[in-house]
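Whiteboard transcription, Tuesday session. T.W. wrote the structure tokens on the left side:
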């Protein structure tokens, strides 16, 4: 058995354990390559059916191709999709593109805060019903007590402190120092009442593993991950004011794999093009303590 197969089996086991252990569970779908791999793993884990809702937090500043891809895949795969948004912050222009807050505060306003309120059911949810192919508003909803997230420990420093089953308090706040040990793939799945749990099936995957799996499974990802003829592509996706494309000639997964193994990006961090990561030490970890992915 090769390493990629081991990772697949481990992730499928974690997904099934999470679904068995938590009453009201959902999965975050950022629409990027990692969470899309996670979606394909969920399909495998549950024999072609995704038995929980997918959550997307719409900042209103995502690269337009991301939203078009989200809606197309949700329709094609019959996914029950939940979309949350901080309409108040957008209406009041409390954003970095409007020039009224810094990048980190913008991330808090448009990502962390609406995520927390979407999870606890206190803010409006837009819900896509694949059976009727329609969207509807849900003003008050049952909170999720666990959510599956596609983060990897190699992606960014604070994420390396996570556990597979990571406890948050009732406000979704995270104390990295209080995480339970996870030895020999033995996971703690029982927590005190009102604990919110983040589940991380991709924690041991690397960027290279993700692209190897995309190639092996022929997973359709957003085309802007590849050079479209202009010599650039996106390596990491986010809001367009804070995410820059990279110089690359890679037009398919194999060429990206080559870049990562022996090419120009072998020793360059994946999120080097994400501007919010550069605004001072520890800022992203501070956001994660408040509920950011």
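and on the right, the sequence the group agreed on:
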């Amino acid at each position: 058995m090769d390493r990629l197969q081991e990772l697949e089996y481990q992730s499928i086991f974690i997904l099934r354990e999470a679904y068995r252990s938590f009453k009201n569970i959902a999965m975050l779908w950022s629409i990027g390559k990692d969470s899309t791999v996670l979606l394909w793993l969920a399909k495998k884990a549950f024999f072609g059916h995704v038995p929980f809702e997918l959550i997307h937090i719409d900042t209103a500043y995502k690269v337009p191709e991301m939203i078009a891809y989200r809606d197309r895949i949700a329709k094609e795969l019959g996914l029950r999709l939940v979309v949350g948004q901080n309409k108040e912050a957008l209406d009041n222009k409390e954003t970095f593109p409007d020039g009224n807050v810094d990048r980190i505060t913008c991330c808090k306003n448009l990502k962390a805060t609406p995520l927390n309120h979407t999870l606890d059911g206190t803010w409006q949810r837009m819900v896509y019903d694949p059976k009727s192919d329609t969207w509807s508003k849900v003003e008050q909803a049952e909170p999720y007590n666990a959510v599956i997230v596609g983060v990897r420990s190699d992606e960014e420093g604070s994420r390396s402190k996570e556990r597979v089953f990571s406890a948050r308090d009732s406000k979704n706040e995270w104390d990295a120092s209080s995480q339970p040990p996870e030895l020999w793939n033995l996971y703690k799945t029982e927590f005190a009442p009102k604990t919110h749990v983040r589940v991380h099936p991709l924690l041991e995957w690397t960027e290279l593993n993700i692209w190897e799996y995309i190639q092996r499974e022929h997973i359709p990802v957003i085309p802007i991950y590849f050079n479209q003829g202009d010599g650039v592509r996106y390596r990491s996706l986010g809001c367009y004011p804070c995410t820059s494309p990279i110089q690359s000639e890679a037009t398919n997964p194999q060429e990206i794999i080559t870049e990562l193994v022996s090419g120009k990006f072998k020793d360059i961090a994946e999120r080097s093009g994400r501007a919010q990561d550069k605004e001072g030490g520890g800022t992203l970890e501070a956001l994660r303590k408040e509920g950011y992915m």
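Someone added at the bottom: The first helix runs from residue 3 to 21.
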